[in-house]
Write a structure and sequence with these properties.
By secondary structure, this protein is α/β, with parallel strands linked by helices. About 45% of the residues lie in helices and about 15% in strands. Helix 8 packs parallel to helix 9 and helix 21 crosses helix 23.
Amino acid sequence: MSEYLDKAGLQVDHGLAEFVDSEVLAPLGHDSAAFWQGFAALLADYAPRNRALLARREELQAQIDDWHRSRAGQPHDALAYVRFLEEIGYLVPEPGEFTIGTENVDPEIATMAGPQLVVPVLNARFLLNAANARWGSLYDAFYGTDALDAPAARPGGYDADRGAAVIAEARRFLDQALPLREGSWTDLRGEPVPLLADEAQYRGRTEKGLLFRNNGLHIEVVIDREHPVGRDDPAGIADVVLESALTTIVDLEDSIAAVDAADKVAAYRNWLGVIRGDLEDTFEKNGRALTRRLAGDKTCQGEGGPVSLPGRSLLFVRNVGHLMTNPAIILPDGSEVPEGIMDAVITSAIGAHDVAGLGRYRNSRAGSIYIVKPKQHGPEECAFTNDLFDAVEDLLELPRHTVKVGVMDEERRTSANLAACIEAVRDRIVFINTGFLDRTGDEIHTSMQAGPMTRKAEMKSSTWLAAYEARNVAIGLRHGLSGRAQIGKGMWAAPDMMRDMVEQKIVHLKAGANTAWVPSPTAATLHALHYHQLDVFARQKELGEAPGLDKLLKIPLAHGTNWSEEEVREELDNNAQGLLGYVVRWIEQGVGCSKVPDIHDVGLMEDRATLRISSQHMANWLLHGVCTREQVMDSLRRMAAKVDAQNAGDPAYVPLVGNEDGPAFSAACDLVFRGVEQPSGYTEPLLHAWRQKAKEISA
């Protein structure tokens, strides 16, 4: 049981209170009593408003459900549907013309285009790797992945043939990004600065080589004749290092499992460590103890003198949404604290260390704190976030709009009212990003009563999805995000399929996104190649108007489709396997995001967004009689055996087969059979409840 301390009428977990007082407030010089008094007053105002917004979600959903049920068996009337959504306030009037007014934004967000990492805050090693992924070796990225179209490296040490193919491919990249006045990079001999076709691309000398810039991103050509590769290279080139992950989202939301005060303190402490610059992680690799630390800055000696370049990715922190509460703090009425409000206050207080210059390095050189706010439903909730951040700034004595916001466009009511959502945070917005997975889950849940949905694979070619992706960019551009904020696209989910990523992910740049998510530092380096191929800001000027709202609101129904029993089983198996493979790690091990083998044994990065789709899709088919409860249970049981086999090499794994009454299998069943009643189809309430039970069992 947690021990609580009274803090201005709040019952605060002892560990959280000690952490905030000693590690967060004391270095800032903030008085503890004044802080908790102010926090309590903030909660007295904003917790009821938070609850009212959640009640509004449920009210709208009930009206939409009733509308669809009352028209069961009738063809969908798109015009009547839009009028209905306007009448109930789901759709709001478009705002007039406006341009965002955000100021003090770092160039990595405003004027540069490049990859973005998302990393679970609870894994210190991954967090440090992501923060250090600002610079990445192109040689390593080619050598160790399938991105290079050449025979795989032979086992047993360095493969010289593979290495030669890597060097050749890297030289081809240099010829494309940094063309010489004459000849090719392959022909270079000696170490003088090569004569470029565009001399402005040369920036100067680094400690280990030459620095160049193309499309706003740096390229370091490492010269080192003592290095095993550089020793045998005619020009002494030992590596080509690319500026890679410009930004990283440190995630307290979908990629972690944090259900109580101990989990939250661990998350906040890692965020503080990376902001303060002293986070370390020691681990064993090949029988040796290694310690990971944050990288220092990179110095370039140019014609005008030395220039310091950031050695680390610029960090956002993703808070949780408005839905969940957490037992870390108990309010005077006995209820749990809204977790999103707690995140806003504490992650901002930690970010204030950076604003005050208390860390070893600076995160934001512009003096801003960057928070990504997910799962907001419409402009009312965005306005609430704006007001909340005002109150947080006042509590922490920060200048107005120090705390910036990234709005995840991943809920249907936000997509349909995106311009109004942007206007609600117009002076602090630095980011909009489409999230196909959560957006699909909400698409299914919002229209749950309309009828059976198409199969998951067909969703990717649906009318609403194409409109959603295009509208997000067009609306962002119309309201002045280009040059002031990021317009982002979603994750490449297959970390082992880098050749496919290199071939395909440039579509995000062509769509006008100046950042897109990647699953690893290596993927960030390979995705950086796309930003050298295409000038995103020039591309943004070529894009047209947004598709109409009618396309966005086209429900992906499958009326009139008669699937065979085999097709139904195939779809259920696909959903059940993905659901179980993710849930068993979440519930039993507290792993919120990992590479989970899919039904074809392909490792995919999974988080709660993919779980939301699988559970909601099965619930939808069950509701409309496409399948039966018995068929669902049959798939769950057979896929439990498959998931067990896929995890046979994990000594910490708790099998599903034989544990149908256990927390993991029970959670999976609840997610399907209670899916219709879950708020917005979210998985968090059930996951948290079953994870807490699993922790009690193992305690």
